[in-house]
Write a structure and sequence with these properties.
The complex is a heterodimer of chains A (334) and B (181).
Chain A: H1 10-24, H2 29-39, H3 43-62, H4 77-84, E1 109-113, H5 122-125, E2 128-129, E3 136-139, E4 145-148, E5 153-158, E6 163-169, E7 171-175, E8 184-188, E9 191-203, E10 210-222, E11 229-231, E12 235-239, E13 245-249, E14 262-269, H6 270-277, E15 284-288, E16 296-302, H7 306-316, E17 319-325, E18 328-333
Parallel strand pairs in A: 6-8, 15-18
Antiparallel strand pairs in A: 1-7, 1-10, 2-5, 3-4, 4-7, 5-6, 7-9, 8-9, 9-10, 10-11, 10-12, 12-13, 14-16, 17-18
Chain B: H1 16-35, H2 38-58, H3 64-91, H4 94-123, H5 129-139, H6 145-152, H7 156-180
Helix pairs in contact in B: 1-2, 1-3, 2-3, 3-4, 4-7, 5-6, 5-7, 6-7
Classes of the chains: A alpha+beta (334), B mainly alpha (181).
Chain lengths: 334, 181
C-alpha cells in the first residue's frame, strides 16, 4: 500500500520485485514457492501485491506487449540487434561518386556525428541536450554556430586560448567562426576533430564518430587508428569495420540535411533509415522483420514528420506499421 | 478444442500440444498469482490455449512456452480487472447498481487516461535512458532479464533493478496524477 505521503513502503517495493521476477521466470517452481511464502506473510503483503497487479494492468494497457511473433523471429541472429538499436549500428558513406553541389560560402561548416551509448550521467555533463524531434541552434561565445540534432548532447568550453566542444551523444553540425589563434576542436569519444577553418558535421550515432565537411578543411584523429585524416569540402570519414579510417564522398549541400529537417538517402538498408528516424519520433518504435538489412532505400524524407516518412517508405516497400498507442509503433519490414 | 492435436507426427508442425501439456500446471500456478483464484486461473489457461492455437494457425510461434505464459498473463490481468468491476457491481443493492454503472464510466475513462499518461512518461523519457530501454525491452518486447542484460551490456540483477525502478516511477507519477484529478 502507498502511504499518505506518497512514499512506497518496503512491502510495495518487494511486491514490484516479485512482479518482475515472476514475469521473467513464470514457470520456475522455486520462484513460485518463494513468492507464495512471501504472499502468505501477512494481509499487508497481499495488499501490496494487489496494488502491484493494479499497476501491471495499467502498464499493460499503456504498453501492450509485442509478442506478435510477426514473421521473422525478432530474436534471431543479426536482426536482434537492429530491433532496438537506438544508435545507428554502423554508418558508411551516404553516397559515393556524385559530384558535389554548388554550396559556396565564405564560412566554414562541417558536421560530426558520433554514436555514444546512452548514459545515465549525461545530464550532469551536458550543457545542451535535445529531445525527440528537436533541433537546437546554439551560438557559442566566439560566434561559432552549432545545430544540435534530436536526442543529442553537447558540452563546450570557450576561453581566451582554446575553443573546444565535446559531443556526448548524437550528432551536431558546426559552422565555426574563423580564428586562427584559437583552434577549434571537437571531441567525440576517442575522436578529435580539429578545425582548420570549416563547417562540418560530427555524427556520434555510429560506433565511432563520423565526420563530413560542408565547407573548409578539418583534420580528424581517431585515437588508436593510424594517421590523421584531412578532409575537404564534400568529404567524409568514418571508421570501417576493420578499424581503419574509411574516406568517402558526400554531396556537400547534403551534409547535415537534418538541420533543415530532411534526410537524404541513397541506396541504404531500410533498417538504417528507420534508425535515423527514431530520434525524430516522440515515442517508442519497435522495428523488426527479415527485410531490415536487405531492403534498400533511396529517397528524401521529411524528418519533422516521421509518420509521413514512414508512409512514404511504405509506398515503395513492403512495410507494415501498427500503431499500438500514440507512443508505440511496430514497424515490420517484409 | 476440436483441432487435430494428434496430427503433429505426420506434418512438420511443432508439438504445441506437448508444450502446453508440459506447462499446464505451471501456467495455472502462474495465472493464479494474478487472479488469486485457482478456478479462474484454470479458465484463463484454457482460454490461453485456444488463443495460442488460433495464433499458431496463421504464424510460426518461435518460443511457444514463453508465448503461452505471456498470453496467460494478459488474460489473467483482464479476468482480474473484470472480476473487480463485477465485484463492485454486485456488492451494491440493485437500486444502486445503475448509479454504480454510471459512476464506473468515468473511472474507465480515468483508467485509459492513466494508461495514456504512463505511456507518455515512459516513451517520452522522463526516465533515465538506460532505465527506459531496460523497461521497454523487458515489458514490450518480452525479452527476459538476461536477454535485456546481454543487449545492453548489463548484469541481470542491474536490469532487474532498472525495471523495478521504472515501475516505481510509474506508480509515483500515477499517484501524482491521481491527486490532480
Amino acid at each position: 500500500m502507498i502511504s499518505e505521503d506518497g512514499n512506497m513502503s518496503a512491502l510495495d517495493r518487494e511486491a514490484l520485485d516479485w512482479l518482475v521476477r515472476l514475469d521473467d521466470q513464470p514457470g520456475d517452481e522455486a520462484v513460485h514457492a518463494a513468492f507464495e511464502a512471501w504472499l502468505e506473510g501477512s494481509p499487508a503483503h497481499r495488499a501490496s501485491w494487489e496494488a502491484a497487479l493494479d499497476l501491471a494492468s495499467e502498464v499493460e494497457t499503456a504498453f501492450p506487449s509485442v509478442m506478435v511473433q510477426d514473421n521473422a523471429p525478432a530474436r534471431d541472429g543479426a536482426l536482434s540487434n537492429d530491433v532496438i538499436a537506438l544508435p545507428l549500428r554502423e554508418k558508411r558513406a551516404r553516397s559515393r561518386g556524385p559530384r558535389w553541389g554548388l554550396v559556396g560560402g565564405l564560412g566554414l561548416a562541417a558536421c560530426l556525428c558520433l554514436a555514444v551509448a546512452p548514459d545515465v550521467a549525461l545530464h550532469l555533463r551536458a550543457q545542451e541536450m535535445t529531445g525527440a524531434g528537436e533541433v537546437r541552434s546554439l551560438v557559442l561565445d566566439d560566434g561559432t554556430q552549432v545545430k544540435l540534432a534530436p536526442d543529442s548532447a553537447l558540452s563546450f568550453a570557450i576561453d581566451g586560448k582554446t575553443r573546444s566542444a565535446r559531443l556526448l551523444r548524437g550528432r551536431a553540425y558546426f559552422d565555426v567562426a574563423h580564428d586562427t589563434a584559437r583552434p577549434f576542436r571537437v571531441m567525440a569519444e576517442d575522436t578529435v576533430v580539429t578545425v582548420l577553418g570549416t563547417a562540418f558535421e560530427v555524427d556520434g550515432l555510429s560506433d565511432n564518430a563520423s565526420v563530413a565537411v560542408r565547407r573548409g578543411i578539418v583534420a580528424v584523429d581517431y585515437a588508436e587508428h593510424g594517421p590523421r585524416t584531412v578532409l575537404h569540402r564534400g568529404e567524409r570519414v568514418s571508421l570501417a569495420a576493420g578499424g581503419q579510417p574509411e574516406r568517402g564522398m558526400v554531396r556537400a549541400e547534403r551534409v547535415a540535411g537534418w538541420v533543415e529537417g530532411r534526410m537524404f538517402v541513397k541506396d541504404r538498408p531500410i533498417g538504417e533509415v528507420l534508425d535515423a528516424l527514431r530520434p525524430w519520433y516522440g515515442g517508442y518504435m519497435v522495428v523488426r522483420g527479415p527485410g531490415l538489412a536487405t531492403r534498400r532505400v533511396t529517397g528524401i524524407y521529411d524528418l519533422r514528420d516521421p509518420n509521413a516518412a514512414l508512409s512514404a517508405l511504405g509506398k515503395a516497400h513492403s512495410i507494415r506499421v501498427r500503431a499500438i498507442t500514440p507512443w508505440l509503433k511496430i514497424v515490420t519490414v517484409q | 478444442m476440436d483441432k487435430p492435436f494428434g496430427s503433429n507426427a505426420e506434418t512438420d508442425r511443432p508439438d504445441h500440444l506437448g508444450v502446453f501439456t508440459k506447462n499446464r500446471s505451471a501456467l495455472i500456478r502462474y495465472a493464479s498469482t494474478i487472479t488469486g483464484d485457482i478456478g479462474l486461473a484454470e479458465d484463463v489457461v484454457q482460454d490461453a490455449w485456444t488463443r495460442f492455437i488460433d495464433a499458431a494457425e496463421v504464424q510460426a510461434i518461435h518460443e511457444p512456452d514463453r508465448f503461452l505464459f505471456r498470453i496467460a498473463r494478459n488474460l489473467a490481468l483482464d479476468a482480474r480487472r473484470r472480476r473487480a468491476f463485477e465485484g463492485r457491481l454486485f456488492a451494491q443493492d440493485a437500486a444502486d447498481a445503475a448509479q454504480q454503472i454510471a459512476s464506473d464510466m468515468p473511472s474507465a475513462q480515468a483508467c485509459a487516461e492513466a494508461a495514456d499518461e504512463l505511456a507518455h512518461i515512459i516513451a517520452v523519457s522522463r526516465l533515465p535512458e538506460r532505465t527506459r530501454q531496460a523497461f521497454l525491452l523487458h515489458r514490450v518486447e518480452g525479452l527476459t532479464l538476461v536477454e535485456v542484460g546481454t543487449r545492453l551490456g548489463l548484469s541481470k540483477s542491474l536490469v532487474h533493478e532498472l525495471v523495478v525502478s521504472a515501475l516505481e516511477q510509474c506508480r509515483k507519477a500515477r499517484r501524482q496524477g491521481g491527486q490532480r484529478r
